[in-house]
TrEMBL record:
This is Uncharacterized protein. It comes from Smallanthus sonchifolius. It comes from the Eukaryota.
Length: 141
């Protein structure tokens, strides 16, 4: 978690108040430390071979992938396969999985999910291109 920064009061060497002739003081904050590498959890690869559809959940905003499950009696039942809470997590998917998701249209139900669905679509369509370029660079070396 982030701690609130408490600035340090430092006397300004060059500045003086024009009326009181006292030295001015300024507040100095510490430099912000940024994450250089985004921590992402590992996902199992090539699991989205038989997806039926995927949608943005209306309450949580997560991308939910649904797969087809056939029972012995011939009944087709939808089962939830995976939930992705952030579009950045799609980077962990394999190229095969991303192409399977790109073939299906992301469904949405209301205005809020209508706003989120294109974000997921953009990342999914961008990731295979990026991964193929990186694989090509590795193959050249």
């Amino acid at each position: 978690m982030c701690k609130p920064q408490i600035p340090k009061r430092v006397r300004d060497k060059n500045g003086r108040h024009p009326m009181t002739k006292r030295s001015l003081k300024k507040l100095v904050y510490k430099l912000v430390v940024y994450e250089t590498k985004i921590p992402l959890g590992k996902l199992s690869q090539d699991i989205l071979g038989n997806i039926w559809y995927w949608y943005v959940h209306p309450k949580s905003g997560e991308a939910v992938v649904i797969r087809k499950v056939w029972f012995d009696s011939g009944i087709l039942v939808p089962r939830e396969l995976i939930r992705v809470f952030d579009e950045v997590c799609f980077i962990n998917f394999s190229v095969k999985d991303l192409e399977a998701l790109a073939d299906k249209y992301c469904m949405y139900t209301d205005e809020w999910t209508k706003f989120l669905a294109p974000k997921y679509d953009k990342v999914i369509k961008f990731c295979p291109v990026y991964k193929k370029k990186m694989e090509a660079k590795v193959a050249e070396q």
